[in-house]
Amino acid sequence: MTTGLNPETGVILFAHGSRDPLWRLPIDAVAQEMTRQWPGLSVACAFLELTTPDLPTTVKTLMMQGKTHLRIVPMFLGVGRHAREDLPQLVNDLVKAYPQVQFELVPSIGEHTAMTQLMAQIAANAVTSA
To answer: Where are the domains of the chain?
Structure first.
């Protein structure tokens, strides 16, 4: 991500959700770290089910902050039905509901080469440090 942040852009970290309230802590930590590294960047979390807020609620919150470009980052390691079908349908519904907003759905983090490399390093460190 570049340092020349567009003040009209917001980032939504989208995750599955869980009944366990502690489940969301790693997603919240990513949002906090992004805000720490890029103080001018507007970052929010949204969840598919069982955890609040949901995606439409987060979109409305960011729109009220004047955001007109929303980048949705699926925080999924594997690309299953939620990433392939449910999320694109949610985004399509939002595009229809809010034509004044530009929605950008990026690939799931698990598809990113850097994530694969980082997970490999963490797994190898667990073995080599034992």
So the answer is: 9-128
